[in-house]
Amino acid sequence: MQAALVSGPLAKRTPKRVLPGFNITLGFTLFYLSVIVLIPLSALFFKTFTLTWDQFVSAVSSPRVVASYQLTFGASFLAALVNAVFGLLLAWVLVRYEFPGKKLIDALVDLPFALPTAVAGISLTALLASNGWIGSLLEPYGISLAFNRNGVVIALIFIGLPFVVRTVQPVLEDAEKELEEAAACLGASRWQTFLHVIFPTIAPALLTGFAMAFARAIGEYGSVIFIAGNMPMVSEITPLIIIGKLEQYDYAGATAVAVVMLGFSFVMLLVINALQSWQRKRAGASS
Amino acid sequence: MSNTRTVRRAKSGTTEPAWVKWSLIGVALAFVFLFLLLPLAAVFTEALRKGIPAFLEAFQEPDAWSAIRLTLVTAAIAVPLNLVFGVAAAWAIAKYEFRGKAFLTTLVDLPFSVSPVVAGLIYVLMFGAHGWFGPWLQAHDVKIIFAVPGIVLATIFVTFPFIARELIPLMQAQGTEEEQAAQVLGASGWQTFWHVTLPNIKWGLIYGVILCNARAMGEFGAVSVVSGHIRGQTNTMPLHVEILYNEYQSVAAFAVASLLALLALVTLVIKSFVEWQFERLEKAAAALPPEPAPLPAPV
User: Fold this and answer.
1) DSSP sequence for A141-188
2) Full-model pTM
3) Cα separation of A246 and A254, whole Å?
4) Interval B180-189: pLDDT, tens
5) If you compute the radius of gyration of chain B from its CA atoms, what whole number of angstroms results?
6) Is B264 within 8 Å of A265 when comparing Cβ atoms?
7) Contact at 8 Å (CB) between A239 and A117?
8) Using the beta-carbon criterion (under 8 Å), do A123 and B46 form an inter-chain contact?
9) How far apart are CA A170 and CA A208, in angstroms?
10) What gap in Å lies between CA A150 and CA A154, rounded to an integer?
């Protein structure tokens, strides 16, 4: 991977550059990237190779692990979906309307990025437990949002909330009002204009935000473990499986599950990159 | 610009009816209230549930202080290292063209998509007792896993892209003309950086640093894997919160958590201030007469 970056035409072209510092900055970048990210990540793959194929398969497909995939992917998908809907709504309201406290709400949207996940976890748990502000209101109706799968989804909604808002917001700000005016002149209702003019413009950004929230939710640990109850087969997320295996000194098993998660991260990274370049093309085409 | 727009919009009927507008705002505000404001308020209410003396008692414990100290030390190492990396990476990626640039940019972003737990695990596999360097480290009596260096490494990993990804698009947008001018006028590389580039990227830099710092101080998953949870030694503030919470010391847990929530609020305030500065600069730039056609790009 690195060889492709360092060797070849790079070395030949450098002397012609006007600004100094190319070799040293790129060299340091590659060094730091290798030491902190690439070499440690490769340790994961090398460790996996010490397993036989059968060992690997049985480690990543035992019933308890499969149940955790179902929960992690299902809850993450659901949370990302909720975030797509409400994120779009929030972005729309923040860009198109004026109302008191708008600046404050806009700043507050980033809270899940700034608040440590453990703090979010215990605070959501305190709210939703049967003696909490919200939990005590819902308990008489037999609704329980903490220490089960519902809690997992709620924690994941919290941590993924800013992604959709922050990807859709700038696109909505740049969207050309003239197109909407044209649609209105041609007799489109406001809803038709939204569906056929505005929505296609923001769709790539919305999908990007959805994918980012989804990817983040898959790997999330800190906020979920407090509220999930962590019952095996029921409300145990995949990152917790890794921790559990580590605590039993099952390094190979932990690594195998981690490789599956990492593989998924790579796929999501590629998907998000593709979505972003689609979005850029869209923006380039319209301007 | 916005004035003329509003006038035109009013005539052309490209707005929603008032009832639609206010119900959308209402639903959005309800969502923000439930998912953002309530959790934030709950942290402080729970911390002060038994009054201020009980709140302060949480900070009488030496373990709490050692957790605070360790969190500060970790951030004080991780953030400057990632700052140097961020500036170097942004300089290389934004100011030059080379093959594999897009791939390198993707790799810089990679730690964001890796689960924190996996991030912790990779360092255990490298430096743990059964890891690559485990036997060598043991022979030389160096502890990385279940010790402070492991915590610092895991924190560096999870906060790795923050500053670089703020600076790369910013420096790309600014181009290289000003730096070239400085070079032509005889400035050295360092002089060019300090007097030309740095003032231009100042706000982006601060933006990246505060976000990086917030994550470095608040990281839980990755640090929890490598820490070993040794009280008074390898507990950061978020880990201390977890221990207190699991011991049913709710007030103490929320007291320490409220410090982290305050940190988050301060981060948001600085972030909003920096964004406001950005907007101001953009407006000032928009008010200037149009620039002459840019010079052809170097390389």
Assistant:
1) GT---SSSHHHHHHHHHHHHHHHHHHHHHHHHHHS-HHHHHHHHHTT-
2) 0.89
3) 6
4) 999 889 888 8
5) 24
6) no
7) no
8) yes
9) 13
10) 6
